[in-house]
Amino acid sequence: MAGSTARPRRRADAERNIARIVSAARAQLRSNPNATTDDIAQAAGVGRMTLYGHFRTRADLVEAALMDALRAGEETLASVDLAGDAREALTRLLESSWELVAESAALLTAAEGVLPAGRVRELHGEPDRRMAELIRRGREQGAFRLDLPPAWLVGVVHYILHGAAGEVREGRLAAHDAADVVIKSIQSVLSDR
User: Fold this and answer.
1) Any bridge partners for residue 191, and if so which?
2) pLDDT the model gives residue 83
3) What is the arithmetic mean of pLDDT over 130-135?
4) Taking a C-beta distance cutoff of 8 angstroms, is the pair 107, 26 a contact?
5) What pLDDT is recorded for position 59?
6) Could you tell me which residues form the DNA-binding region (predicted)?
7) Which residue has the higher pLDDT, 186 or 120?
């Protein structure tokens, strides 16, 4: 028998509603970072009361959508081969990272608009740790610069990825050129040569 302090499990229909709402939020916010909770509820096929029963505020819903996107992205990034030469591993990681950032650029915009300062970056903890480890290894191999702090270099990578997504969104960078621009920019920042 479970202890009296155990949290009751949600009903299966509540779990399905949450999954539909989060999925609809990801889709709606990807196409329009200003999508309303009404837009999302309608896309999920639920009423506003159901949506607000699970997510008290739009910010809570946006954070749940971003966390869901990051979990899915983590599955992709965790499968990237980072062995061998750090520069080559960086290219592989950036190719996968760029695809994820480009796919979720509007979702990131929505999150940055409603979440507290630093929360978006905080939610990127695992991708940041992966990049920090790759930079550390690249520095040991003599491939990446030693004159700047590793945390700064991870931040620069983060800003270049998200900045490029903004440039594509604003039409100042062609989507088909973005991956190459991102990879070359980050490699030039990290390079010791």
Assistant:
1) 144
2) 94
3) 94
4) yes
5) 93
6) 36-55
7) 186
- Residue at 127 is within a domain: yes
For residue 127, give the CATH number of its domain.
1.10.357.10
Which two structure tokens, joined as six digits, stand for 123? Answer: 């939610």
Residue 133 tokens read as 């480890």
Q: Which residues of 128-150 are buried (b: 16+ CB within 10 A; e: fewer)?
A: bebbeebbebbbeeebbbeeeeb
CA dist 151 and 146 (Å) reads 12
Contacts of 157 (CB under 8 A, 6+ apart): 131, 186, 189, 190
Q: At 144, phi and psi to the nearest 5?
A: -115, 150
Instruction: Express as a percent the part of the chain with pLDDT over 90.
Output: 55
Domain presence at residue 184: yes
Cα separation, 163 vs 149, in Å, equals 21
Judge whether 123 lies within some domain: yes
Q: Is residue 56 part of a domain?
A: no
Distance CA 190, CA 193 (A): 9
Q: Which residue segment(s) compose the domain that 102 sits in?
A: 64-190
Q: What is the pLDDT of residue 46?
A: 94
3-state secondary structure (DSSP) of residue 83: coil
Q: At what angle do helices 86-103 and 150-169 cross, to 10 degrees?
A: 40
> How many domains, the chain?
1
Mean residue pLDDT of the chain comes to 88
How many Cα atoms sit within 13 Å of 129 on the Cβ side? 7
- Tell me the two tokens of residue 82: 């980072």
